[in-house]
Write a structure and sequence with these properties.
single chain; alpha+beta; Phosphorylase Kinase, domain 1; Aminoglycoside 3'-phosphotransferase, Chain: A, domain 2; 2 domains; five-stranded antiparallel sheet; 11 helices; globular
């Protein structure tokens, strides 16, 4: 949707009062509250899956999601000019601030509650082939490890090193060792049993739980949350979300041991972690996913020159290596 029209709200029985544009979507004040109007390019089954997860969470008492308004036809979308769009509940607030320790800790508790209440949901047939990733994690880790190895071999074979290449090579062997150790955890029986248990419980993950997916209504007497961006929701092991959130927050907070432990404690107040889950969180944080991502993006550009942004991101990563190791040592001790 390039332009907004009041007619977009008609299929949902809403009447607009005013609207503002927001990052490719529209925030609208209506006669029934604030909503977000956004075009999507997902399949019908993917929308039904996200809708089902949100409704299941709401039925269990987790109200803090951008639930879809159903159209008068009973669908969580409508069509406009050949494009599918959704209307979602919304709040007027700001993205969560992961550099703010109390807010980051509160996010961890919110995630724990989401995981606890998201268990035991059976996707309806209209969700299509439900995304199940219980057994996929080890394969992804092995793939990342092999890619890191290939980048090193490719650079050494080429023999002409850029400044970015030299920075990668300066930390590559250390990170390869970490990746190898992490893969050892994921390829073992502990993971196999954990995957079986989570599949039996029909555990659901958000898939993209970070500051861009969590809104905070600052004007509320008590902070009001809204979790959005359920596009990557799937049946998977909850530790995936924990690792992604911890890694994102800790990178922005110099791998603070106190903050990391406080976040895990906040999560466990809502949903206690199994021993195997704690081991996988350690292994997931040990795996150099940030380096893998940077290398993949940088070396797949197919340009003759490297954008300065990648060099800056890699410099930030290298600057935090020692503090990251310190955090991992503390976490390993806690898990013994």
């Amino acid at each position: 949707m390039k332009e907004f029209s009041e007619a977009l709200l008609d299929p949902f029985g809403l009447r607009m009062k005013r609207y503002t544009r927001s990052y490719g979507a529209f925030i609208c004040d209506t006669d029934q509250g604030t909503v977000l109007v956004k075009s999507v390019d997902w399949s019908e089954g993917a929308i039904w899956f996200a809708h089902g997860v949100k409704e299941h969470l709401a039925a269990q008492g987790f109200w803090w999601t951008d639930r879809y308004w159903l159209s008068q036809e009973g669908l969580p979308w409508a069509m406009d000019g050949g494009m599918r769009y959704t209307v979602r509940q919304w709040i007027k607030g700001e993205e969560a601030d992961v550099s703010n320790a109390p807010e980051a800790i509160a996010m961890a508790g919110l995630l724990g509650k989401l995981h606890r209440l998201g268990m035991h949901w059976e996707a309806a047939p209209k969700c299509g082939k439900a995304a199940k990733r219980y057994d996929d994690w080890p394969r992804q880790m092995q793939k990342g490890y092999r890619q890191l190895q290939s980048y090193g071999k490719g650079m050494r074979k080429n023999g002409h090193y850029t400044e970015f290449d030299l920075m990668v090579l300066s930390c590559l062997e250390d990170n390869l060792q970490q990746a190898k150790e992490a893969c050892h955890y994921f390829m073992g029986p502990l993971y196999t049993e954990l995957a079986r248990q989570m599949e039996e419980k029909k555990a659901v993950v958000h898939g993209s739980f970070a500051e861009h997916a969590v809104m905070v209504e600052a004007e509320a007497l008590h902070s009001r949350w809204l979790v959005s961006e359920f596009e990557q929701a799937a049946y998977a092991i909850p530790a995936e979300d924990c690792i992604a959130l911890l890694e994102k927050v800790l990178r922005k907070n110099e791998w603070s041991v106190n903050l990391g432990m406080a976040m895990l404690e906040a999560y466990e107040r809502e949903r206690p972690l199994e021993t195997a889950e704690k081991q996988m969180i350690y292994a997931g944080l040990l795996f150099p996913s940030r380096l893998c991502k940077l290398c993949k993006e940088a070396y797949h550009l197919k340009r003759k020159w490297m954008p300065i942004s990648y060099k800056r991101k890699l410099e930030e990563l290298l600057a935090g290596q020692e503090k990251r190791k310190e955090f991992l040592r503390e976490l390993a001790c806690m898990l013994r």
